[in-house]
Amino acid sequence: MFTLLHDYLPLLLEGFAHTLLASAIALVASFLWGSLVGIWQSAGKGLLKAFATIYVEIFRNIPLLVIVMFFYVVLPLFSVKLSGFTSGVIALSLYTSSFIADIIATGIKAIPRGQFEAGLSQGFTARQCMAYLIFPQAFRQSLPALGNQVINLVKNSSILAMVAGLDLMYYGDLVALETFDTFASYSLVAGFYLLLTVPLTLFIQKLEKNYSL
């Protein structure tokens, strides 16, 4: 295993960097979009509420692999060509955002309606009440569930390997094919993922302790 690590460390580090980048982009995109959809789902009206509900139900109930393949295989049929990395990040963002939206919507619904009405009585607009009063409380209340989604997102980033996304799992597969040492190859890949997920889990637990309601 140590010989394999010495020989293929640059390759695995490149995959590790791509996994970090894909996870970071997808995390920001899915949180921003998922939060907006969650607000529409819980507090929106008419078409916005309907769109948010349908969006969450669709992307939450379709396997991530199918979504990735749609962007990587289907869109090129319509002259829209995306790299494996881009396809994976978009799919990962859409998939994760549906779960985040549901979490945020649940958190918002848990906040007493009286707080929103109190904000309105103090001269806040509906948007200001949501931005400054309701959403921050919903976010703190939803931290445990959101933390789980962050960890899941990092692990789900391995889906990029299915579309040549140049991530850690993709290069792990290459090393395994070249060396035929599957045990060492995938043990190293697992170790790199642990380097990401364990500190992230500890950080999220600290956030929960400090900021949860």
From TrEMBL:
Annotated Gene3D superfamilies: MetI-like (1.10.3720.10)
A Gene Ontology cellular component where this protein is annotated is: ATP-binding cassette (ABC) transporter complex
Q: Where in the cell is it found?
A: Cell membrane
Describe its membrane topology.
Multi-pass membrane protein
The GO biological-process annotations, alphabetized, read as: amino acid transport
Q: Signal sequence: where?
A: none
* Record key words, sorted: Cell membrane, Membrane, Transmembrane, Transmembrane helix, Transport
Q: Which GO terms describe its molecular function?
A: transmembrane transporter activity
Family annotation (NCBIfam families): HEQRo_perm_3TM
- Can you name this protein? Amino acid ABC transporter permease
